[in-house]
Amino acid sequence: MGRCRVFEPVSLQTVARNVVRKGVRKGVRKGVRKGVRKVVRAWALMLCAATAAAPASAQTLPTFTATERASILRHGPWPPPLARDPANAQDGRAQAIALGRRLFFDPSLSAEGDLSCASCHDPATAFQDGRRTPKYGTRNTPSLLDVAQQRWFGWGGASDSLWAASLAPMSSANEMGPPRLDSATLIQHAKALAAYQATLVSPRTTFDAFRDALARGDSRAAAAYPLAAQRGLRIFVGEGRCNVCHSGPLFSNGEFADIGVPFFVPDGVDSGRHDGLKSLMTSVHNRLGPHNDAGAAQDPRAVLTRQLDMQPRHFGEFRVPGLRNVANTAPYMHDGSLPTLADVVRHYSELNEERLHADGERILRPLKLTAEQTADLVAFLQSLSR
Amino acid sequence: MAFVMAAVPALACTLARADGALLGAVGLQLAWRTEPAMPVQGQPFVLFLRTCPANAALLKVDAQMPEHRHGMNYKPAIQALGNGRWRVEGLLWHMSGRWEWRFDVRSSTSSSPGANTGTGTSTSTSTSSDAPVQTLRASVQLP
Q1: Does B58 touch chain A (CB under 8 A)?
Q2: What is the pTM of this model?
Q3: How far apart are the CA of A359 and the nearest CA of chain B, in angstroms?
Q4: Chain B: residue nearest A309 by CA?
Q5: Which residues of B are less than 8 Å from A253 in CB distance?
């Protein structure tokens, strides 16, 4: 009964009539017993509808406005069509994907022979490691699901392609490096690794089923979406304004933001996007460089790399992560400092505006959510996972 | 549109709504449109402009979110297509809400239309450098 909800008010008679008709028809076709079961279900549905339609009940349904519905629809459909990366000629090639999969689990790529990509990006934990931060480093290991849909890679966006981002840990002495392979071989390995990672896509979720039901006006299918998640969704696209940054099917605008998480690290400051931009703009492995398989002039994605603009406000900004599969990727934030989704919601609810250092921007404000609203928002976030 | 047109002095060339959304200033008309017609949040898009007189120089294009007090994360690249037509790329609006275009244009009302026929990424034109720079603005509510 907890899931007996309808998204929009419907006529009780209509629900009963349609369900009974279907039940009876089924009964004629497939036997009386099945037909009886359908009729019983029809009465159960009627009871659900009656519960949902009860006025002033604690189970009153959220009625989304046209604006809210439009916002919700923009978070799908899922999965989106895969777009090949022009900078990586290996992208989409079966042989490269197979090679990349093998390399991903191969510890011999590391200097000591004891570390593979999967050591930190564990498939069993949504391709991350579940730790606050890895043994070496001060940033949380991000999940690789849906990674190919990002525009910038890493918390500071130091890479503009998945293959270049895959090259970085193999080259870094703090991670798998220093490399034992020559540069050309490393780049080919990185492109195969990227081809494999491009196949890692989040599964559809209860939110996607709800969103699609909403798109086609199927209120009965929409009713399967838990009510708490619906209320949380309303906060997400409404007063919470979470979708200002967590937008689109990926629930990320692909850019960077300062959300008041401290950026001090043991040896100083993690400047986030500022440092990422410095690295990216000077890297020979960016889209403007000689390793772009399409050539910068023929790569439509190279435009944004060319037009990047270093601004003071980028100091302390970190990549806006996508929220798909978020319930399976704890802990949270660039430094892994928040253990649970409830902690994340509370962070925004009780936001310390004095910690924001983003040059006078006026985007974030404490949401001051009640305990019930916090639970609803968490329920919605959980519905983005499976 | 009627208001905009009424505020614009008579010019040898007159832009039409088919050229894009119209803006006017003293001795200057500008039409702008984007591809796609409504940018998608977080996705790059391209801006096309047409200026009248055609030898007006499009000096700068920028977009800000006044309510958020920030702009884009990218520096738009202006390409002169010739005959008062311009293409701008390197545009991405990363947040929903109100964005305000800012177009800085230098023009001389005595200039003859069609004088600028050059192409390339340079913003230099035959317009006199001592002509005043005019700023035209337009708002877009990004869903």
Answers
A1: no
A2: 0.82
A3: 8
A4: B74
A5: 41-42, 94-95
B142 → chain A, closest CA residue: A244
| Ordered domains of chain A (ranges, CATH) | 1-58 (no CATH), 62-79+202-267+315-386 (1.10.760.10), 83-200+273-313 (1.10.760.10)
Q: Which of B46, B38, B71 is nearest to A255 (CA)?
A: B71
Which residue of chain B has the CA closest to A75?
Answer: B41
Examine the predicted complex and report whether its ipTM is higher than 0.90: no
| Rounded CA separation A329/A221 (Å) | 28
Q: Which of A244, A303, A308 sits opposite B95 (nearest CB)?
A: A244
| pLDDT tens-digit readout, A32-89 | 454 444 443 443 333 333 333 333 333 445 789 999 999 999 999 999 998 999 999 9
The pairing of strands B21-25 and B28-35 is antiparallel
B46 touching A (Cβ < 8 Å): no
CB pair distance less than 8 Å for B143 and A248: no
Tokens encoding B12: 């040898």
Cα–Cα distance measured from residue A299 to residue A85, given in angstroms and rounded to the nearest whole number: 9
Cβ <8 Å between B143 and A71: yes
Angle between helix axes A162-171 and A183-197 (nearest 10 degrees) is: 130
Rounded Cα–Cα distance for residues A126 and A140 (Å):
14
Q: Which domains does chain B have, with CATH numbers?
A: 2-142 (2.60.40)
- Spell out where A201-286 has E strands: 256-257, 264-265, 268-269
